[in-house]
Amino acid sequence: MNAPSAVILSAGKGERLWPLTSTRPKPLLPILCKPLILNHLEALYSKGVREYFIVVHHMEELVKREVSSFFEERRDANVTFVKQGEPRGTGHAVLSVFREAEVPGDRLLVIYGDVYIDVETYSRVLDSFLRDSGEDHVLGVLVNDVSRFGELLVDDYGNLLEIREKPGIARRGIINGGIYLVEKTPLRKALETVRVSERGEYELTDALNKISKITTVKVDVIEHSSWSDIGTPWDYLEINRRIVKERVGRVIIGVGSHVSENSILEGPIYIDQDVTIGPFNRIRGPTVICRGVRIGFSVEVKASVLLENSRVPHLSYVGDSVIGEHANLGAGTITANLRHDNESVKTVVKGRLVSTGMRKFGAVIGGYAKTGINTSLLPGVKIGARSWIGAGCIIDRDVPDDSVVKCRCEKTIIDRRDIQ
Predict the structure, then answer these.
(1) Residue 355: in which H helix or E strand, if any?
(2) Nearest to residue 200, comparing CAs of 95, 112, 90?
(3) Ramachandran angles phi, psi of 235, nearest 5°
(4) How far apart are CA 190 and CA 168, in angstroms?
(5) CA-to-CA distance for 146 and 6, rounded, in angstroms?
(6) What is the 3-state secondary structure (H, E, C) of 97-136?
(7) Domain containing residue 206
(8) Please, is 250 exposed, middle or buried when counting C-beta atoms within 10 Å of its C-beta (0-12, 13-18, 19+)?
(9) Domain end marker among 201, 229, 257
(10) 272 Cβ neighbours under 8 A, 6+ residues apart
(11) Looking at the domain assignment, is residue 127 inside a domain?
């Protein structure tokens, strides 16, 4: 049987990932310094998939450039970019493909562009999906708490009964892994009859629920340890740290990188190409340092992700944090990462204060942001892209994109001879 066509959903804004998604769409967020979408493209291409439909909207030109670059030397593949006009949900995104393009073949692989699966597990999942069985498939992930995800209800034979959105009850179960293999014609018919959900969107899961009522949909279950939903900045930090521990396990230094002999590296640490570290630094894993990063004199970095061309010149501490591309930290910048009461760090997401579930969590600094000397960032604070923080500031709340923060301390200067 011929390989199916693949639809990769890459149109979302990733608002919960702010400020990381202010300068790039979430499918391009680097996992171990490689854009997330490449994980999908490499896995699919290795299994013989040659027809691709990439749904775009937010920062679409960046997605097009990255995908087109991947296929420059893979001329046997066909790639079509489909712009989702007004984003109205995952169901609307797939329906946009049917309406804007001719999709060959009988079956369709639909993939959420913001999920990560490790390479070996991804290969096994696709092998299971693509066996010549004619069955529809949904990827399921076994987790200890289904409350934040779409839950899969499965019968005794491993077949889908229903996808139930965010049940809100903490219990062990199977959640939606964001990869489906379905017959093309029934999927289109189901999507054309889906109604707007309570969230005001056309949900792909509602179409799958319709399909599961008339045909068998097999649920292929994997362990949570090999899968991640990149939904928040702390999800992003944690998946990078997990991969460093599992796949790197020590210290890897890329081509063209230089580490001063006076520096201390405590793995696991992944250092990409053209990185400069030192002198007199301490880098503690699990840490990811991407291409072109510069770390100067007497800096400590612990369990963090530093994205491309960011700068930590000297005398700073970066702990359990994400530093965006081309960001620059002034001398003495400190990211606090622990509350006095040792409770989980909380942060604001889309106007709501939520728990990260992490006892240690520092700052998230957007791309091209700059901090002045002696800046202190409290746990869970996020600095917007391209923002400037003045010298000596203590930042205890989020700073929007493109902001300037000035911190003035009132001063009095008197003549010493006037002091009695």
Answers:
(1) strand 352-355
(2) 90
(3) -60, -45
(4) 27
(5) 27
(6) HHHHCCCCCCEEEEEECCEEECHHHHHHHHHHHHCCCCCE
(7) 5-229
(8) exposed
(9) 229
(10) 33, 254, 257, 288, 289, 290, 291, 293
(11) yes
| Tens digits of residue pLDDT in 129-179 | 988 667 899 999 999 988 888 899 999 999 999 998 876 678 899 999 999
Rounded to 5°, angle at Cα 106 from 133 and 229: 75
User: Residue 95 is encoded by which pair of tokens?
Assistant: 């329906």
User: Which phi and psi (to 5°) does residue 126 adopt?
Assistant: -65, -35
- Sheet arrangement for strand 251-253: 251-253, 269-271, 287-289, 305-306, 322-323, 364-365, 382-383
> The domain that contains 254 carries what CATH number?
2.160.10.10
Q: Which of 58, 92, 137, 314 is catalytic?
A: 314
Among 173, 203, 229, give the residue marking a domain's end. 229
How many domains does the chain contain in total? 2
Determine, yes or no, domain membership for 420. Answer: no
- Say if residues 392 and 372 touch (Cβ distance below 8 Å): yes
For residue 45, the domain's CATH number is 3.90.550.10
Contact 267, 250 (CB under 8 A): yes
236-281 pLDDT, tens per residue? 999 999 999 988 889 999 999 999 989 999 989 999 999 999 899 9
pTM equals: 0.91
Is 92 an active-site residue? no
Do residues 97 and 169 share a domain?
Answer: yes
